[in-house]
Give the backbone structure.
Amino acid sequence: MGTLAMLGASGCGFRTQDRTISAADVSEDRTKLTNFMSSPARPGQPTEKTPSAISREALVDEARIVRYGTDGVCVALHTRTHTSLDVPMSQYRIELNGQRVNIDREEMGVSDWQYTGEREKAVVEFVSKDAAGSFRSTETEQKTFRVIERRTQFCGVPAKQGKITLEVSIPQDDGRGPWGANFVWTMDIPSRRVQLVTAPNTMPTSPPATPEQKAAPAELVPADNAGAPTLSL
């Protein structure tokens, strides 16, 4: 069962999800953790959110263990961010079990979520001898919330005392601090055993959209070279 925690100095205070994995739990579903990007260095310590008309699941990030053993750990990562935060995964800062991981291969796609919003049409202000006031006119319009999905797989050093830690952060150019998320697995499994988790070679399904949202599911393609082989996640 996953639990929510906030790390202190460790992990930069990003929103954290954790889970304990037993020998009976080693499967794709049981190792998957979901989270949302947060930015604790910014005023109000915001967490990434969608417009109220769209499910927050449109921005959910996923991480799961695809290999675990005494010789190392491999993790599959799938991020979903609004276009305002998006950068290539090669610019992410990713640490697996305390060591930096460099990403040189990824897949990416786009999901557009449609919703109805309001646009300001006119504002009239008036002042008279006896009163003052204003009038605001709006009209309904269709808006699009665009989400960029990126996916990759990477490996790192063995877990420390059975604990796997993954910190993912996205740098920003505004100087106000990065956005990021932490994932932590506690492996209640004998270290002599190598566990393999086989994941399907398909993109995880997007959350269901309401009739108003009509989200177009993202089709992930190699981000660096359209002719490159896709990752087997």
Observations:
- The chain is about 0% helix and 45% strand.
- The two ends are 23 Å apart (CA to CA).
